[in-house]
Design goal:
68 residues; alpha+beta; Dodecin subunit-like; 1 helix; 56% strand
């Protein structure tokens, strides 16, 4: 039987929303083992002087807990 847990993280990128998601997954995988899926809960852009400066995503990361 597998048991999973979900945790929420935020990630940013100066390039794109897709890049922010990829960076978030890469970073989460350094700390969390067995990452299985990510749900993009929210996304928004930070604007400065009328230009998009940063893309931000809020992610729900699902990972499997280690067996006992």
């Amino acid at each position: 039987m597998s048991i999973a847990r979900v945790t929420e993280i935020s990630a940013t990128s100066p390039k794109s929303f897709d890049d922010a998601v990829k960076l978030g997954i890469e970073r989460a995988s350094k700390t969390l083992r067995n990452v299985k899926s990510v749900w993009v809960k929210d996304q928004n852009a930070m604007v400065e002087d009328g230009k998009v400066r940063e893309f931000k995503v809020n992610l729900a990361v699902t990972f499997l807990l280690d067996d006992e």
